[in-house]
Amino acid sequence: MTEATDLAERAGDRDPRIGLRAVVALRRLLEQLEAVQVRSARNQGWSWQEIAAELGVSRQAVHKKHGRR
Questions:
Q1: Using CA atoms, how far apart are residues 21 and 65, in angstroms rounded to an integer?
Q2: Taking 70 as the threshold, does the pLDDT of residue 62 lie above it?
């Protein structure tokens, strides 16, 4: 988790260029982590509704985002 920790620290940098770049990198990392966890849940038999409930989104939203993977 050092990458995430380093990025989170840089996101609070006083230099907006450094902070904004860190925000972009964190966003990418978050998307990757979400995809990994959704895939894991599906492999364990979770329904799209169960996954959506944990993510706080609609079933349609999570299926649209991750259903084709």
A1: 24
A2: yes
